Amino acid sequence: MARVQLDQVRKVYPNGFVAVAGASFEVADGELLVLVGPSGCGKSTLLRMIAGLETISAGTLKIGERVVNDVAPKDRDIAMVFQSYALYPHMTVAENLAFGLKLRGHDKAAIASRVAEAAKTLEIESMLDRKPAALSGGQRQRVALGRALVRQPQAFLLDEPLSNLDAKLRMTMRVEIARLHRQLGATMIYVTHDQIEAMTLGQRIVVLDKGEIQQIDTPMALYQKPVNLFVATFLGSPAMNVLRGRLSDDGGLAVRLDDGVRVPLGEARVPEQWLGREIAVGVRPEHLLPAKTGDAGVFEAEVEVVEPVGSEVFVNLRLGQQPLVARFDPHVLPERGKPFPIAVAGDRVHFFDADSGVALRRE
Q1: Staple partner for 150: which of 114, 173, 313, 349, CB 3.0–4.6 Å?
Q2: Does this model's pTM top 0.70?
C-alpha cells in the first residue's frame, strides 16, 4: 500500500467552472479517508482525478513517491469501485474477479490463488459459479469489491459504492468495508454524500462544499469542533439547530432572535465583547433538554411533530418563527400542539459569526 498526496490540486473545466479549488491533503499509508459533501461539491471529481479519469488542471498528485499527474489510469496501480457494480453479466463471479488479472497477463495459478483469497475474505466462495443476475445487490457489491481486491493495488478508491443498496444492507456493507479495511491495512479513499457513512467509516474526513475543502479531521473532532456553520449543520442527524439573533446578558446569557423571542443559554459563558453582537448560535438536538417550567434557564416551545424511533424520540418544536428539533429519551413523549419546557445545555453550544459563518472560539 502507499500514501496519496495532493498539493493544491485543481480542476477547472473549459467553460471556467471550478470543480475543485486547490485541494491539499495527505492520505497516510493504510488510512481510510472519506470525502464527503453535498451533490456537486467536487468530491467525485477529486476521486476521479486521483484515479486518472479526469485531468488535473493544476497542482501535484503523488501516489507513493511517484508524481502521477500525467500517468495513465492503468499505470497508477489503483483499483476503483463505482456506484454501479459494473459487472459483466455473461461472466460468472469467478470470471468477473479474474478478468482484470487476465488482461494484465497474470498466469492461471496466480489468478486462481488471488480469486480464491478474495472470495474467502468477502465470504462469496459459494457464489463463484453464479452469474450477476442470480445475486442480490449486496452480493454484487461484494463481487465489485472483490474485483478491486484481487488487484492488490497501492490504493483503493470507492465512489459511493453503497448508494444503490437499501438502508439495512447499507449498514451491513459499511461494517463489511470497515472489517475489510482493518484486515487488509489498505489505503482507501471513500466518497459519499451520506454523513452517517462518513462518520462511521472514516478515520479522517475531508468535508467539501462548492469545490473547496471546509475542514479535515477525525469524525468526533468535526462533530464537536466544526470550523464553520456549513460543517456544523452538514454533520449530524438531525441537523444542528441554528438560532440567529443578538447576544445579551440580561438576567443570564441569552440570544434574542430576530422576531424578539429570548432564548436563555443556560450556563454558557462568552467573552464580554461578544455581548450585543449579531451571532449564530448552534445547538445540537441532544443538547436541548426536557425541563421543568419555572426553573432557571427554561423556556417553552410548541410541540409540532413527535417522531418515536425506538431508542429515542425526535421532537419538532416551534419557538416563535424558529423551528427546533430535540432528541429525547424514549420515555419522554410530549403532547402534540402543547407548549413544552426545554433548556439549552449551555456548555455544549457553538457560536458562529452571523455573516461569515466562521466558528467563534471562547478560549
Answers
A1: 114
A2: yes
